[in-house]
From TrEMBL:
Species per Swiss-Prot/TrEMBL record: Devosia soli
Compartments, record wording: Membrane
The protein's name in its UniProt record: Ion transporter
Presence of the UniProt keyword Transmembrane helix in the record: yes
GO MF annotation list: voltage-gated potassium channel activity
The entry's keywords: Ion channel, Ion transport, Membrane, Transmembrane, Transmembrane helix, Transport
Keyword Transmembrane helix: yes
Domain Potassium channel: 155-226
Membrane topology: Multi-pass membrane protein
Length: 266
């Protein structure tokens, strides 16, 4: 077991880290208000990322960009201090993606072509307990997989849109702006394929094929989650099976008696 990081650190730092752990992980009213504020700020940041291609030529774009960078940096530092083991926390994929996003914000002129990857912030946010606690609190945890599938689909759409806008904007392709790139992405991934906008060259055809295959897969996954009966997350004490019907009395894998809490509590 790794030694705790609370050894040999100043008292003020230990108090700060303890306070941040409470704010990020506690269910106390003050902590829940803090988590709701963080969630609202993160959603506003994601809206900025989606709108960035439309705002990049505005005079205030750099001011907004660096302001967002400051917010992302502060949140990363706070999350690092709230973690029990910072080095282990740094190795997590969502954290690595957030650090990369911060780099693109600090160097917007050099890395703007990679700016479309900033929407991955929505995916990293979906891995945070802050998003799912309100669902669980209102007994909507059974819809977690569906919400995650919607988020995955949105992230895919905007990542592909940003890539197409960055790599293929030209008169030859018919893509003259961000909306054209979004239109191409949606019509391709749904296999509607009106043909009024096409990506030129062999590489363009490969991109189109990849978008169709991955897009259809995400749509099918989302449709399965929407139309199949909802299940609750309740690990079986005996075999560990985590998904069951809401009214299940026995585990369908091992037959162990279950005690699934209803919407009124345990």
């Amino acid at each position: 077991m790794d030694p705790p990081e609370t050894t040999r650190q100043p008292a003020w730092l230990a108090r700060l880290r303890k306070r941040l752990r409470i704010l990020y992980h506690s269910q106390q009213p003050g902590a829940l208000r803090f988590q709701a504020t963080v969630l609202i700020v993160d959603l506003a940041i994601i809206v900025f990322f989606i709108a960035s291609p439309l705002l990049k030529d505005r005079d205030y774009f750099l001011w907004l960009d660096y302001s967002i960078a400051a917010l992302v940096f502060l949140e990363l530092v706070a999350r690092a201090l709230a973690s029990t083991h910072v080095l282990r926390w740094l190795q997590q994929l969502p954290v690595i993606i957030d650090i990369f996003i911060l780099v693109t914000l600090l160097a917007p002129a050099w890395l703007f072509n990679l700016g479309f990857l900033r929407i991955l912030r929505l995916w990293t946010l979906s891995k945070s307990p802050i998003v799912w606690r309100p669902l669980n609190k209102h007994h909507l945890g059974a819809y977690r997989d569906t919400v995650q599938a919607v988020i995955n689909l949105l992230v895919f759409i905007f990542v592909v849109t940003g890539f197409v806008y960055t790599a293929f904007v030209s008169d030859e392709s018919g893509i003259e702006g961000y909306v054209d790139a979004l239109y191409f992405t949606v019509t391709t991934m749904t296999t509607t394929g009106f043909g009024d906008i096409t990506l030129p060259g062999t590489f363009g055809k490969i991109v189109s094929i990849a978008v169709m295959l991955m897009g259809i897969s995400l749509f099918v996954r989302l449709a399965q989650l929407i139309f199949r009966p909802a299940k609750v997350h309740f690990p079986c004490p005996q075999c560990g099976l985590s998904k069951h019907e809401p009214d299940a009395v026995h585990c369908k894998a091992c037959g162990h008696i279950l005690n699934i809490p209803d919407e009124g509590g345990a």
